[in-house]
Automatic annotation (TrEMBL):
Species this protein is from: Amycolatopsis sacchari
Family: Belongs to the radical SAM superfamily. RlmN family.
Note describing how the cofactor binds: Binds 1 [4Fe-4S] cluster. The cluster is coordinated with 3 cysteines and an exchangeable S-adenosyl-L-methionine.
Binding site for [4Fe-4S] cluster: 127, 131, 134
Cellular compartments per GO CC: cytoplasm
Swiss-Prot/TrEMBL catalytic activity: adenosine(37) in tRNA + 2 reduced [2Fe-2S]-[ferredoxin] + 2 S-adenosyl-L-methionine = 2-methyladenosine(37) in tRNA + 5'-deoxyadenosine + L-methionine + 2 oxidized [2Fe-2S]-[ferredoxin] + S-adenosyl-L-homocysteine; adenosine(2503) in 23S rRNA + 2 reduced [2Fe-2S]-[ferredoxin] + 2 S-adenosyl-L-methionine = 2-methyladenosine(2503) in 23S rRNA + 5'-deoxyadenosine + L-methionine + 2 oxidized [2Fe-2S]-[ferredoxin] + S-adenosyl-L-homocysteine
Listed cofactors: [4Fe-4S] cluster
Active-site positions on this chain: 107 (proton acceptor), 361 (s-methylcysteine intermediate)
Binding site for S-adenosyl-L-methionine: 182-183, 216, 239-241, 318
Enzyme Commission number(s): 2.1.1.192
Lineage: Bacteria, Bacillati, Actinomycetota, Actinomycetes, Pseudonocardiales
Cell location: Cytoplasm
Annotated function: Specifically methylates position 2 of adenine 2503 in 23S rRNA and position 2 of adenine 37 in tRNAs.
Protein name per UniProt: Probable dual-specificity RNA methyltransferase RlmN
GO biological process: rRNA base methylation; tRNA methylation
Length: 368
């Protein structure tokens, strides 16, 4: 097998200074004590950040003013500044372009549905996986995001929902998907820490159920197994995009390192360990991976490796400007879905949102 010269660790660039959301509960108490403050101040700070969703020192009136400024300066440095927010789908989709402290750009997309509100977050600025049909992959990897930069996307969206800044009035952020910019498992340690911050009960964390969090990957098989051993209840989503190695070597270059069989075996280990069904993501691309025989092969391979512990999400490709890649025609899409279902594997088409605001990950940042 050909070794693939992919760099999984981001270039050593400007991660932000330490932030409260980077730290465990015990580490927060230590950090506060190091600043000469009583350890209980850590819980007060956590309550403001994770429960009240604020980083405004003026709002922290339960902390003495002199201590407040110092604690906020040291443990809540500014992380993300909103560059612009675009709305689509009658205001039910909101895409935000963020600028980090070092000028790095990243994106998140908040989607409100009648029964839930889902936030798609980024784990890296850019991506090193080089998938040719993906706007982010074509831009390359800028750097990993810190744990706190990941968590702060969620805190901000939770505040948008709470404050009723989307149509439908005040609501609650309920679901998190790591399907924005970057390969989450290539920033493994920080992503796992972020999941723990997102799911720990308030005020230790944001209190979102682990079962409402999805972590996606293009198929870093050893990291999938490692994630399984964390014994969390998050859903795993594997971006497969084709069931055959020959095409996947091109569409998802990391396949040169871990084949379809290896990825699906790791996914089965995750399903067996977590007890949760695995999602298979399949971006349907006109005349590339939408042939009937590929639908049949997909069902066959998934049934072999995952049995009933799998669901396929067919995603109509959201083409990027000037790209040669295009979405499959609807009749082709319907036949593909029909054949996968007929092959004994549950398959549905994912709802697409925000096409008029370049909501495919990486498109807004690419526009600058």
């Amino acid at each position: 097998m050909t070794a693939l010269p992919l760099v999984f660790e981001a270039p050593k660039r400007g991660l932000p200074p330490r932030h409260l959301a980077d730290l465990s509960v015990a580490e927060r108490a230590e950090a506060v004590a190091e600043l000469g403050e009583k350890p209980f101040r850590a819980k007060q700070l956590s309550n403001h950040y994770f429960s009240r969703l604020t980083v405004d020192p003026e709002a922290m009136t339960d902390i003495p003013a002199a201590s407040r400024e110092r604690l906020v300066t040291e443990l809540m440095p500014p992380l993300l500044t909103e560059v612009r927010a675009l709305e689509a789908d009658g205001g039910a989709t909101r895409k935000t372009l963020w600028r980090a402290h070092d000028g790095t750009l990243l994106e998140s997309v908040l989607m409100r549905y009648p029964d839930r509100a889902t936030l798609c977050i980024s784990s890296q600025a850019g991506c090193g996986m080089a998938c040719p049909f993906c706007a982010t992959g074509q831009g390359g990897l800028d750097r990993n995001l810190s744990t706190a930069e990941i968590v702060d996307q969620v805190r901000s969206a939770a505040a948008v929902m709470r404050d009723g800044l989307m149509p439908g009035g005040p609501g609650r952020l309920s679901n998190i998907v790591f399907m924005g910019m970057g390969e989450p498992l290539a920033n493994y340690k920080r992503v796992v820490a972020a999941v723990r911050r997102i799911t720990e009960p308030a005020p230790s964390g944001l209190g979102i159920s682990q079962r409402s969090v999805t972590v996606s990957t293009v198929g870093l098989a050893p990291a999938i197994r490692k994630l399984a051993d964390e014994k969390m209840q998050v859903r795993l989503a594997v971006s497969l995009h084709t069931p055959d190695d020959e095409l996947r070597d091109t569409l998802v270059p990391v396949n040169n390192r871990w084949s379809v069989d290896e990825v699906l075996e790791a996914a089965r280990y995750y399903a067996d360990t977590s007890g949760r069904r695995v999602s298979i993501e399949y971006a349907l691309i006109r005349d590339i991976n939408d042939q009937p025989w590929r639908a049949d092969l997909l069902a066959k391979r998934l049934r072999k490796h995952l049995g009933q512990l799998v669901h396929v999400n067919v995603i109509p490709l959201n083409p990027t400007p000037g790209s040669k890649w295009d979405a499959s025609p609807k009749p082709v899409e319907r036949e593909f879905v029909r054949r996968v279902n007929a092959g004994g594997v549950a398959c549905t088409v994912r709802d697409t949102r925000g096409q008029e605001i370049a909501a495919a990950c990486g498109q807004l940042a690419a526009e600058g």
